[in-house]
Design goal:
The complex is a heterodimer. By secondary structure, chain A is an all-alpha fold. In chain A, helix 1 packs antiparallel against helix 3. Chain A is globular and about 30 Å long. The relative contact order of chain A is 0.21. Chain B is of the alpha+beta class. Helix content of chain B is about 30%, strand content about 25%. In chain B, helix 6 packs across helix 7. The longest helix of chain B has 19 residues. Chain B starts with a strand and ends in a 5-residue tail after the last helix. The chains are: A mainly alpha, B alpha+beta. At the A-B interface, helix 3 of A face helix 5 and helix 7 of B.
Protein backbone atom coordinates (compact mmCIF):
# COMPACT_ATOMS: atom_id res chain seq x y z
CA UNK A 1 0.00 0.00 0.00
CA UNK A 2 1.49 3.32 -1.04
CA UNK A 3 0.92 6.03 1.54
CA UNK A 4 -1.24 8.87 0.24
CA UNK A 5 -0.78 11.92 2.43
CA UNK A 6 -2.19 14.83 0.45
CA UNK A 7 -4.64 15.77 -2.29
CA UNK A 8 -1.94 15.63 -4.93
CA UNK A 9 -1.20 12.06 -3.95
CA UNK A 10 -4.87 11.12 -4.30
CA UNK A 11 -5.01 12.69 -7.75
CA UNK A 12 -1.89 10.80 -8.84
CA UNK A 13 -3.38 7.53 -7.58
CA UNK A 14 -6.64 8.18 -9.46
CA UNK A 15 -4.86 9.01 -12.71
CA UNK A 16 -2.50 6.07 -12.39
CA UNK A 17 -5.40 3.62 -12.14
CA UNK A 18 -7.31 5.34 -14.95
CA UNK A 19 -4.25 4.98 -17.17
CA UNK A 20 -4.23 1.26 -16.41
CA UNK A 21 -7.96 0.87 -17.11
CA UNK A 22 -8.00 3.01 -20.25
CA UNK A 23 -4.46 2.95 -21.66
CA UNK A 24 -5.51 4.64 -24.89
CA UNK A 25 -7.05 7.66 -23.15
CA UNK A 26 -5.42 11.09 -23.21
CA UNK A 27 -5.60 11.81 -19.51
CA UNK A 28 -3.80 15.13 -19.89
CA UNK A 29 -6.89 16.49 -21.59
CA UNK A 30 -9.36 14.87 -19.17
CA UNK A 31 -11.33 17.62 -17.46
CA UNK A 32 -11.31 17.16 -13.66
CA UNK A 33 -15.10 17.40 -13.67
CA UNK A 34 -15.67 15.04 -16.62
CA UNK A 35 -17.81 12.00 -15.84
CA UNK A 36 -15.29 9.16 -15.83
CA UNK A 37 -17.52 6.28 -16.84
CA UNK A 38 -18.91 8.10 -19.84
CA UNK A 39 -15.75 9.95 -20.89
CA UNK A 40 -13.40 6.98 -20.59
CA UNK A 41 -15.97 4.31 -21.48
CA UNK A 42 -15.53 2.44 -18.19
CA UNK A 43 -17.90 -0.41 -17.36
CA UNK A 44 -19.00 -1.62 -13.94
CA UNK A 45 -16.02 -3.98 -13.58
CA UNK A 46 -13.60 -1.16 -14.48
CA UNK A 47 -15.28 1.14 -11.97
CA UNK A 48 -15.04 -1.47 -9.22
CA UNK A 49 -11.35 -1.89 -10.06
CA UNK A 50 -10.86 1.89 -9.76
CA UNK A 51 -12.45 1.91 -6.31
CA UNK A 52 -10.47 -1.15 -5.29
CA UNK A 53 -7.20 0.52 -6.34
CA UNK A 54 -8.06 3.69 -4.42
CA UNK A 55 -9.03 1.62 -1.40
CA UNK A 56 -5.62 -0.05 -1.53
CA UNK A 57 -3.82 3.26 -1.97
CA UNK A 58 -5.62 5.03 0.88
CA UNK A 59 -6.87 2.30 3.20
CA UNK A 60 -10.35 3.87 3.02
CA UNK A 61 -13.36 1.52 2.83
CA UNK A 62 -15.88 2.94 0.36
CA UNK A 63 -19.49 1.91 1.03
CA UNK A 64 -21.61 1.35 -2.09
CA UNK A 65 -23.88 4.31 -1.35
CA UNK A 66 -20.86 6.61 -1.73
CA UNK A 67 -20.09 5.51 -5.30
CA UNK A 68 -21.88 8.51 -6.88
CA UNK A 69 -19.36 10.82 -5.17
CA UNK A 70 -16.60 9.15 -7.20
CA UNK A 71 -17.95 10.00 -10.64
CA UNK A 72 -15.16 12.47 -11.55
CA UNK A 73 -11.47 12.99 -10.78
CA UNK A 74 -12.33 16.01 -8.61
CA UNK A 75 -15.03 13.97 -6.90
CA UNK A 76 -12.56 11.21 -6.05
CA UNK A 77 -10.00 13.70 -4.69
CA UNK A 78 -12.59 15.50 -2.56
CA UNK A 79 -14.09 12.25 -1.24
CA UNK A 80 -10.83 10.61 -0.19
CA UNK A 81 -9.42 13.87 1.20
CA UNK A 82 -12.49 14.21 3.36
CA UNK A 83 -12.37 10.60 4.51
CA UNK A 84 -8.66 10.93 5.33
CA UNK A 85 -9.18 14.25 7.11
CA UNK A 86 -6.84 16.10 4.72
CA UNK B 1 2.96 -40.62 -28.20
CA UNK B 2 0.30 -37.99 -28.39
CA UNK B 3 0.17 -35.15 -30.86
CA UNK B 4 -0.34 -31.74 -29.33
CA UNK B 5 -2.31 -29.97 -32.06
CA UNK B 6 -3.36 -26.45 -32.93
CA UNK B 7 -6.78 -26.39 -31.26
CA UNK B 8 -9.96 -25.05 -32.80
CA UNK B 9 -11.10 -22.30 -30.48
CA UNK B 10 -14.41 -21.29 -31.98
CA UNK B 11 -16.35 -21.45 -35.19
CA UNK B 12 -14.53 -18.47 -36.60
CA UNK B 13 -11.00 -19.84 -36.20
CA UNK B 14 -9.23 -21.65 -39.02
CA UNK B 15 -5.61 -20.93 -38.18
CA UNK B 16 -3.31 -20.08 -35.30
CA UNK B 17 0.30 -19.11 -34.66
CA UNK B 18 2.55 -20.38 -31.89
CA UNK B 19 3.99 -17.24 -30.33
CA UNK B 20 6.12 -18.98 -27.74
CA UNK B 21 6.69 -22.40 -26.25
CA UNK B 22 6.42 -22.59 -22.46
CA UNK B 23 7.84 -26.11 -22.49
CA UNK B 24 10.88 -27.49 -24.27
CA UNK B 25 11.91 -30.99 -25.33
CA UNK B 26 12.41 -33.18 -22.27
CA UNK B 27 10.18 -31.09 -20.00
CA UNK B 28 7.49 -32.81 -17.96
CA UNK B 29 3.96 -31.70 -18.85
CA UNK B 30 1.04 -32.08 -16.45
CA UNK B 31 -2.51 -32.43 -17.67
CA UNK B 32 -3.99 -28.94 -17.90
CA UNK B 33 -0.59 -27.27 -17.85
CA UNK B 34 0.16 -24.45 -20.29
CA UNK B 35 2.39 -25.70 -23.08
CA UNK B 36 2.30 -22.89 -25.63
CA UNK B 37 1.12 -19.36 -26.24
CA UNK B 38 -0.89 -19.13 -29.41
CA UNK B 39 -2.06 -16.12 -31.39
CA UNK B 40 -5.39 -16.38 -33.20
CA UNK B 41 -7.19 -13.81 -35.28
CA UNK B 42 -9.23 -12.95 -32.19
CA UNK B 43 -6.87 -13.13 -29.23
CA UNK B 44 -3.61 -14.36 -27.77
CA UNK B 45 -4.26 -17.51 -25.79
CA UNK B 46 -2.50 -19.92 -23.48
CA UNK B 47 -2.95 -23.49 -24.71
CA UNK B 48 -2.99 -26.28 -22.15
CA UNK B 49 -2.17 -29.96 -22.60
CA UNK B 50 -4.96 -32.49 -22.31
CA UNK B 51 -2.55 -35.29 -21.44
CA UNK B 52 0.30 -35.73 -18.99
CA UNK B 53 3.73 -36.81 -20.18
CA UNK B 54 7.01 -35.46 -21.43
CA UNK B 55 7.40 -33.07 -24.33
CA UNK B 56 9.28 -35.16 -26.86
CA UNK B 57 9.61 -32.91 -29.84
CA UNK B 58 8.51 -29.51 -31.09
CA UNK B 59 7.24 -29.59 -34.67
CA UNK B 60 6.36 -25.96 -35.29
CA UNK B 61 8.64 -23.09 -34.46
CA UNK B 62 7.18 -19.84 -33.13
CA UNK B 63 6.04 -17.32 -35.69
CA UNK B 64 4.34 -19.59 -38.21
CA UNK B 65 0.62 -19.54 -38.95
CA UNK B 66 -0.75 -23.07 -39.26
CA UNK B 67 -4.26 -24.44 -39.86
CA UNK B 68 -6.21 -25.81 -36.92
CA UNK B 69 -5.48 -29.47 -36.27
CA UNK B 70 -1.82 -29.18 -37.25
CA UNK B 71 0.42 -31.20 -34.91
CA UNK B 72 2.54 -28.69 -32.99
CA UNK B 73 4.49 -31.04 -30.76
CA UNK B 74 4.72 -34.64 -29.64
CA UNK B 75 4.07 -35.52 -26.02
CA UNK B 76 5.38 -38.84 -24.76
CA UNK B 77 3.08 -40.68 -22.34
CA UNK B 78 4.45 -41.66 -18.91
CA UNK B 79 6.31 -44.96 -19.20
CA UNK B 80 6.95 -44.68 -22.91
CA UNK B 81 10.59 -44.80 -23.91
CA UNK B 82 11.98 -41.66 -25.58
CA UNK B 83 11.70 -41.83 -29.32
CA UNK B 84 9.82 -45.11 -29.01
CA UNK B 85 7.24 -44.26 -31.59
CA UNK B 86 8.26 -42.84 -34.93
CA UNK B 87 5.79 -40.00 -34.44
CA UNK B 88 3.44 -38.88 -37.10
CA UNK B 89 5.38 -39.65 -40.24
CA UNK B 90 3.67 -37.03 -42.38
CA UNK B 91 4.80 -34.21 -40.10
CA UNK B 92 8.34 -33.22 -41.03
CA UNK B 93 9.23 -30.16 -38.96
CA UNK B 94 10.01 -28.03 -41.97
CA UNK B 95 6.57 -28.58 -43.45
CA UNK B 96 4.21 -28.93 -40.54
CA UNK B 97 1.35 -27.17 -42.21
CA UNK B 98 1.01 -29.72 -44.96
CA UNK B 99 -0.30 -32.26 -42.47
CA UNK B 100 -3.61 -31.63 -40.86
CA UNK B 101 -4.94 -29.18 -43.36
CA UNK B 102 -8.64 -28.45 -42.94
CA UNK B 103 -11.05 -30.12 -45.36
CA UNK B 104 -11.15 -27.06 -47.57
CA UNK B 105 -7.40 -26.99 -48.04
CA UNK B 106 -6.97 -29.62 -50.77
CA UNK B 107 -9.03 -27.55 -53.15
CA UNK B 108 -6.93 -24.53 -52.32
CA UNK B 109 -3.74 -26.50 -52.66
CA UNK B 110 -4.67 -27.43 -56.19
CA UNK B 111 -5.17 -23.81 -57.10
CA UNK B 112 -3.17 -22.59 -60.07
CA UNK B 113 -1.07 -20.28 -57.94
CA UNK B 114 0.79 -23.31 -56.59
CA UNK B 115 3.91 -23.51 -58.78
CA UNK B 116 5.95 -21.39 -56.45
CA UNK B 117 9.49 -22.57 -55.84
CA UNK B 118 9.15 -21.88 -52.13
CA UNK B 119 7.09 -24.03 -49.78
CA UNK B 120 4.02 -22.28 -48.52
CA UNK B 121 1.55 -22.89 -45.72
CA UNK B 122 -2.12 -23.34 -46.63
CA UNK B 123 -2.94 -20.31 -44.51
CA UNK B 124 -0.48 -18.15 -46.45
CA UNK B 125 -1.82 -19.57 -49.70
CA UNK B 126 -5.35 -18.69 -48.65
CA UNK B 127 -4.23 -15.18 -47.75
CA UNK B 128 -2.51 -14.89 -51.12
CA UNK B 129 -5.77 -15.78 -52.84
CA UNK B 130 -7.66 -13.23 -50.77
CA UNK B 131 -5.20 -10.52 -51.73
CA UNK B 132 -4.71 -11.68 -55.33
CA UNK B 133 -0.98 -12.21 -54.81
CA UNK B 134 0.96 -14.52 -57.18
CA UNK B 135 2.91 -16.85 -54.91
CA UNK B 136 5.59 -17.40 -57.57
CA UNK B 137 6.61 -13.78 -57.04
CA UNK B 138 6.82 -14.03 -53.26
CA UNK B 139 10.09 -14.50 -51.44
CA UNK B 140 9.66 -16.72 -48.39
CA UNK B 141 11.35 -15.70 -45.15
CA UNK B 142 10.11 -18.57 -42.97
CA UNK B 143 12.11 -21.69 -42.05
CA UNK B 144 13.51 -23.30 -45.22
CA UNK B 145 12.38 -20.34 -47.29
CA UNK B 146 8.75 -20.98 -46.50
CA UNK B 147 6.28 -18.31 -47.50
CA UNK B 148 4.46 -16.92 -44.48
CA UNK B 149 1.40 -14.69 -44.26
CA UNK B 150 3.51 -11.59 -43.54
CA UNK B 151 5.53 -12.40 -46.70
CA UNK B 152 2.32 -12.49 -48.73
CA UNK B 153 1.15 -9.24 -47.20
CA UNK B 154 4.51 -7.61 -47.77
CA UNK B 155 4.42 -8.73 -51.43
CA UNK B 156 1.08 -7.03 -51.79
CA UNK B 157 2.73 -3.87 -50.51
CA UNK B 158 0.79 -4.04 -47.30
CA UNK B 159 2.13 -3.72 -43.83
CA UNK B 160 1.48 -6.90 -41.83
CA UNK B 161 -2.13 -6.71 -40.88
CA UNK B 162 -3.32 -4.78 -37.88
CA UNK B 163 -4.61 -7.19 -35.16
CA UNK B 164 -7.70 -5.00 -34.92
CA UNK B 165 -8.44 -5.66 -38.60
CA UNK B 166 -7.97 -9.38 -38.11
CA UNK B 167 -10.24 -9.39 -35.05
CA UNK B 168 -12.91 -7.53 -36.99
CA UNK B 169 -12.64 -9.99 -39.86
CA UNK B 170 -12.99 -12.97 -37.48
CA UNK B 171 -16.07 -11.43 -35.89
CA UNK B 172 -17.49 -10.67 -39.33
CA UNK B 173 -17.04 -14.29 -40.41
CA UNK B 174 -18.72 -15.73 -37.31
CA UNK B 175 -21.60 -13.26 -37.27
CA UNK B 176 -22.25 -13.62 -41.01
CA UNK B 177 -22.30 -17.37 -40.64
CA UNK B 178 -24.70 -17.07 -37.72
CA UNK B 179 -27.17 -14.88 -39.59
CA UNK B 180 -26.83 -17.01 -42.74
CA UNK B 181 -27.40 -20.36 -41.04
CA UNK B 182 -29.31 -19.83 -37.82
CA UNK B 183 -33.03 -19.06 -37.89
CA UNK B 184 -33.07 -16.84 -34.81
CA UNK B 185 -36.17 -16.16 -32.77
CA UNK B 186 -36.23 -13.42 -30.15
CA UNK B 187 -38.05 -13.07 -26.83
CA UNK B 188 -37.92 -10.40 -24.17
CA UNK B 189 -39.24 -10.00 -20.67
CA UNK B 190 -38.82 -7.27 -18.09
CA UNK B 191 -37.81 -8.71 -14.74
CA UNK B 192 -38.33 -7.25 -11.27
CA UNK B 193 -34.90 -6.79 -9.70
CA UNK B 194 -36.24 -5.55 -6.35
CA UNK B 195 -35.42 -8.71 -4.37
CA UNK B 196 -31.99 -9.02 -6.04
CA UNK B 197 -30.93 -5.41 -5.45
CA UNK B 198 -32.19 -5.44 -1.84
CA UNK B 199 -30.34 -8.66 -1.13
CA UNK B 200 -27.22 -7.36 -2.86
CA UNK B 201 -27.23 -4.09 -0.87
CA UNK B 202 -27.48 -6.03 2.39
CA UNK B 203 -24.83 -8.55 1.37
CA UNK B 204 -22.42 -5.87 0.14
CA UNK B 205 -22.96 -3.68 3.19
CA UNK B 206 -21.10 -6.28 5.20
CA UNK B 207 -18.33 -6.74 2.63
CA UNK B 208 -15.16 -4.84 1.94
CA UNK B 209 -14.46 -3.29 -1.46
CA UNK B 210 -12.40 -6.28 -2.51
CA UNK B 211 -15.16 -8.85 -2.07
CA UNK B 212 -18.21 -6.87 -3.14
CA UNK B 213 -20.61 -8.66 -5.47
CA UNK B 214 -21.72 -7.19 -8.79
CA UNK B 215 -25.34 -7.33 -9.91
CA UNK B 216 -24.01 -8.87 -13.12
CA UNK B 217 -22.82 -11.88 -11.13
CA UNK B 218 -26.38 -12.57 -9.97
CA UNK B 219 -27.70 -12.23 -13.51
CA UNK B 220 -25.09 -14.63 -14.90
CA UNK B 221 -25.81 -17.20 -12.19
CA UNK B 222 -29.56 -16.94 -12.78
CA UNK B 223 -29.00 -17.44 -16.51
CA UNK B 224 -26.87 -20.54 -15.87
CA UNK B 225 -29.41 -22.10 -13.51
CA UNK B 226 -32.26 -21.31 -15.91
CA UNK B 227 -30.38 -23.08 -18.73
CA UNK B 228 -30.27 -26.16 -16.54
CA UNK B 229 -34.07 -26.17 -16.57
CA UNK B 230 -34.32 -25.73 -20.35
CA UNK B 231 -31.58 -27.96 -21.78
CA UNK B 232 -32.64 -27.36 -25.41
CA UNK B 233 -30.93 -24.00 -25.14
CA UNK B 234 -27.60 -25.26 -23.83
CA UNK B 235 -25.44 -27.07 -26.39
CA UNK B 236 -24.56 -27.10 -30.07
CA UNK B 237 -26.23 -27.46 -33.44
CA UNK B 238 -23.86 -29.66 -35.42
CA UNK B 239 -24.34 -31.94 -38.43
CA UNK B 240 -28.03 -31.22 -38.62
CA UNK B 241 -28.90 -32.14 -35.05
CA UNK B 242 -28.87 -30.59 -31.62
CA UNK B 243 -26.24 -31.93 -29.24
CA UNK B 244 -27.17 -30.91 -25.70
CA UNK B 245 -24.37 -30.24 -23.23
CA UNK B 246 -24.58 -31.74 -19.76
CA UNK B 247 -22.20 -29.08 -18.47
CA UNK B 248 -23.11 -25.39 -18.45
CA UNK B 249 -20.18 -23.23 -19.52
CA UNK B 250 -21.49 -19.73 -20.06
CA UNK B 251 -19.61 -17.56 -22.52
CA UNK B 252 -19.40 -13.96 -21.32
CA UNK B 253 -19.37 -11.33 -24.06
CA UNK B 254 -16.64 -8.86 -23.12
CA UNK B 255 -16.10 -5.71 -25.14
CA UNK B 256 -12.49 -4.79 -25.80
CA UNK B 257 -11.14 -1.29 -25.54
CA UNK B 258 -10.62 -0.05 -29.07
CA UNK B 259 -13.42 -2.22 -30.46
CA UNK B 260 -14.35 -5.82 -30.93
CA UNK B 261 -15.41 -8.39 -28.40
CA UNK B 262 -14.55 -11.83 -27.09
CA UNK B 263 -16.80 -14.34 -25.35
CA UNK B 264 -14.63 -16.64 -23.21
CA UNK B 265 -16.44 -19.12 -20.99
CA UNK B 266 -16.63 -19.62 -17.26
CA UNK B 267 -16.58 -23.38 -16.81
CA UNK B 268 -19.44 -24.96 -14.81
CA UNK B 269 -21.05 -21.58 -14.25
CA UNK B 270 -24.12 -23.14 -12.65
CA UNK B 271 -22.07 -24.83 -9.93
CA UNK B 272 -20.00 -21.87 -8.76
CA UNK B 273 -20.92 -20.10 -5.52
CA UNK B 274 -21.59 -16.38 -6.05
CA UNK B 275 -18.31 -15.27 -4.46
CA UNK B 276 -16.31 -17.54 -6.72
CA UNK B 277 -18.31 -16.56 -9.81
CA UNK B 278 -17.88 -12.86 -8.97
CA UNK B 279 -14.09 -13.26 -8.73
CA UNK B 280 -13.96 -15.32 -11.93
CA UNK B 281 -15.96 -12.71 -13.84
CA UNK B 282 -13.66 -9.88 -12.78
CA UNK B 283 -10.62 -12.00 -13.63
CA UNK B 284 -12.04 -12.99 -17.01
CA UNK B 285 -12.75 -9.38 -17.97
CA UNK B 286 -9.23 -8.38 -16.95
CA UNK B 287 -7.59 -11.19 -18.93
CA UNK B 288 -9.81 -10.68 -21.98
CA UNK B 289 -8.53 -7.11 -22.16
CA UNK B 290 -4.95 -7.56 -20.99
CA UNK B 291 -4.18 -11.02 -22.41
CA UNK B 292 -3.83 -14.40 -20.75
CA UNK B 293 -7.05 -16.18 -21.75
CA UNK B 294 -6.86 -19.96 -21.79
CA UNK B 295 -7.58 -21.90 -24.97
CA UNK B 296 -10.08 -23.98 -23.02
CA UNK B 297 -12.01 -20.86 -22.11
CA UNK B 298 -12.31 -19.85 -25.76
CA UNK B 299 -13.44 -23.29 -26.92
CA UNK B 300 -15.92 -24.35 -24.25
CA UNK B 301 -18.94 -22.04 -24.19
CA UNK B 302 -22.26 -23.91 -24.36
CA UNK B 303 -24.34 -20.70 -24.45
CA UNK B 304 -23.46 -17.01 -24.14
CA UNK B 305 -24.54 -14.06 -22.02
CA UNK B 306 -24.20 -10.49 -23.18
CA UNK B 307 -24.91 -7.37 -21.21
CA UNK B 308 -25.05 -3.82 -22.47
CA UNK B 309 -25.91 -2.76 -18.98
CA UNK B 310 -23.40 0.04 -18.74
CA UNK B 311 -24.63 2.37 -21.44
CA UNK B 312 -28.33 2.79 -20.91
CA UNK B 313 -29.42 0.31 -23.56
CA UNK B 314 -32.83 -1.05 -22.60
CA UNK B 315 -32.67 -4.42 -24.36
CA UNK B 316 -30.16 -6.30 -26.51
CA UNK B 317 -31.24 -8.83 -29.14
CA UNK B 318 -27.95 -10.56 -29.83
CA UNK B 319 -26.52 -12.70 -32.59
CA UNK B 320 -25.91 -16.32 -31.57
CA UNK B 321 -22.31 -17.59 -31.64
CA UNK B 322 -22.40 -20.74 -33.77
CA UNK B 323 -22.51 -23.63 -33.08
CA UNK B 324 -24.25 -22.54 -29.89
CA UNK B 325 -28.03 -22.23 -29.97
CA UNK B 326 -28.80 -19.47 -27.50
CA UNK B 327 -27.68 -16.04 -26.42
CA UNK B 328 -29.11 -14.40 -23.31
CA UNK B 329 -29.02 -10.61 -23.12
CA UNK B 330 -29.42 -8.09 -20.34
CA UNK B 331 -30.09 -4.40 -20.82
CA UNK B 332 -29.38 -1.67 -18.28
CA UNK B 333 -30.84 -2.25 -14.83
CA UNK B 334 -33.05 0.79 -14.27
CA UNK B 335 -35.93 2.08 -12.19
CA UNK B 336 -39.17 1.47 -14.04
CA UNK B 337 -42.92 1.42 -13.40
CA UNK B 338 -44.09 -1.90 -11.98
CA UNK B 339 -47.62 -3.04 -11.25
CA UNK B 340 -47.85 -4.44 -7.75
CA UNK B 341 -51.41 -5.50 -6.90
CA UNK B 342 -53.52 -2.57 -8.07
CA UNK B 343 -50.77 0.03 -7.73
CA UNK B 344 -48.00 1.20 -10.02
CA UNK B 345 -44.74 1.55 -8.10
CA UNK B 346 -41.18 2.41 -9.12
CA UNK B 347 -39.04 -0.72 -9.04
CA UNK B 348 -35.55 -1.68 -10.15
CA UNK B 349 -36.05 -3.70 -13.35
CA UNK B 350 -34.00 -5.18 -16.16
CA UNK B 351 -35.07 -6.36 -19.60
CA UNK B 352 -33.81 -9.88 -20.24
CA UNK B 353 -33.82 -11.21 -23.79
CA UNK B 354 -33.25 -14.51 -25.48
CA UNK B 355 -32.00 -15.04 -29.01
CA UNK B 356 -32.43 -18.72 -29.79
CA UNK B 357 -31.94 -21.11 -32.69
CA UNK B 358 -35.37 -22.21 -33.93
CA UNK B 359 -33.88 -25.43 -35.26
CA UNK B 360 -33.10 -26.51 -31.69
CA UNK B 361 -35.98 -25.06 -29.69
CA UNK B 362 -39.31 -23.28 -29.99
CA UNK B 363 -40.58 -20.03 -28.53
CA UNK B 364 -42.54 -21.81 -25.83
CA UNK B 365 -39.40 -23.38 -24.38
CA UNK B 366 -37.55 -20.11 -24.76
CA UNK B 367 -40.27 -18.41 -22.75
CA UNK B 368 -39.72 -20.94 -19.97
CA UNK B 369 -36.09 -19.82 -19.73
CA UNK B 370 -37.01 -16.18 -19.16
CA UNK B 371 -39.68 -17.23 -16.67
CA UNK B 372 -37.12 -19.36 -14.81
CA UNK B 373 -34.72 -16.40 -14.61
CA UNK B 374 -37.46 -14.23 -13.11
CA UNK B 375 -38.24 -16.88 -10.50
CA UNK B 376 -34.57 -17.40 -9.66
CA UNK B 377 -33.89 -13.68 -9.27
CA UNK B 378 -36.87 -13.41 -6.91
CA UNK B 379 -34.94 -15.59 -4.43
CA UNK B 380 -31.39 -14.27 -4.75
CA UNK B 381 -30.30 -15.86 -1.48
CA UNK B 382 -30.65 -19.24 -3.19
CA UNK B 383 -28.51 -18.39 -6.21
Amino acid sequence: MSAVTDRGGIRVAVLRELKRLAPEADLASLAPDALLRRTLDLDSVDFLNLILALHRATGVEVPEQDYPALATVDGCVAYFASRLGL
Amino acid sequence: MVEFRMPKLGADMDRGKVVAWRKGPGDAVAKGEIVAEVETDKADLEVESFTAGTLERILVEPGTWVPIGTPLAIIRAPGEAPGEAPGPAPAPPAEPTQVAAPPSAPATAAAPSLPSASPCSPAARKRAEELGVDLAQVKGTGPGGRITIPDVEAARGQAPEDPQVRLRRAIAAAMSRSKREIPHYYLSQTLDLGPATDWLAAANGARGVDSRLLLGTLLVKAAALALKEVPELNGFWTDGTFQPSAAIHLGIAISLRGGGLLAPAILDTDRLPLDELNARLADLVRRARAGGLRALEMASATATVTSLGDRGVEAVFGVIQPPQVALIGFGTPRTGPWVLGDRVVPRPVVTATLSADHRASDGHRGGLLLEAMERLLASPERL
